[in-house]
TrEMBL record:
InterPro entries assigned to the protein according to its UniProt record, in alphabetical order: Homeodomain-like_sf, HTH-type_TetR-like_transc_reg, HTH_TetR, Tet_transcr_reg_TetR-rel_C_sf, TetR_C
Species of origin: Streptomyces gilvifuscus
Protein name: TetR/AcrR family transcriptional regulator
Pfam families the record matches: TetR_C_11 (PF16859), TetR_N (PF00440)
Keywords of this entry: DNA-binding, Transcription, Transcription regulation
UniProt domain HTH tetR-type: residue ranges: 14-74
Record feature DNA-binding region, as residue ranges: 37-56
Length: 197
């Protein structure tokens, strides 16, 4: 009976998990990755550190999963508008301009932390980069199957690079946050022509 009770107590509901992830993102925005501690997450969420470590293993995994949970781009594989342009536009429209600005600032801070932290890089690759690349491949495969994109187009391997590049470079080059209007025009002017669409 004790084992069953313990197992039930250690389960985290989806609602509680979402609360924890939101608290992690708030702390990241406030103090950055390096200053974020599991003690601070535990205090902010009224959780025990033992629960956090048991559920997520450590700070890098917790942060990567929090970012993934908050990222509207996941589920791209489920979008099927009937055209590649429609799919990429639908992905872009999942976030409003305010959300994009917050995500851009958060990702800039995390990009710096990733360079000096192999655990964070590994967690990001496992929980964000590889799953998102797999979803993009599904979208591109549907475009190939529909005859929109040639299977041997060399730009196929760089779609993710182009999408991230447009998002990240907007702030550095134009000193403005990424917006829906900017990204939609970027997709039409850069990504789709590169793919021959």
């Amino acid at each position: 009976m004790t084992e069953v009770t313990t197992a039930r107590r250690s389960r985290i509901t989806p609602e509680r998990e979402a609360e924890l992830y939101e608290a992690v993102l708030e702390l990241l925005r406030e103090v950055g990755y390096d200053a974020l501690t599991m003690d601070a997450v535990a205090a902010r969420t009224k959780s025990s550190k033992a629960t956090l470590y048991r559920q997520w293993g450590g700070k890098a995994e917790l942060v990567a999963k929090a970012v993934r949970h908050n990222k509207p781009g996941f589920g791209l594989g489920e979008i099927d508008t009937g055209s590649l342009r429609g799919d990429l536009h639908a992905l872009t429209m999942r976030s409003d301009d305010c959300e994009m600005e917050q995500s851009s600032a958060l990702m800039r801070g995390l990009a710096m932390a990733i360079h000096g932290n192999p655990d964070l890089l590994k967690a990001f690759r496992e929980y964000l980069i590889e799953p998102e690349m797999a979803e993009f491949r599904q979208v591109l495969q549907r475009a190939i199957d529909r005859g929109e994109v040639r299977a041997d187009n060399p730009a196929i391997d760089y779609v993710m690079h182009m999408m991230i590049g447009g998002f990240a470079a907007r702030t550095m080059i134009d000193e403005q946050p990424p917006t829906q209007a900017f990204l939609l025009s970027y997709i039409d002017a850069v990504v789709l022509p590169a793919l021959g669409v």
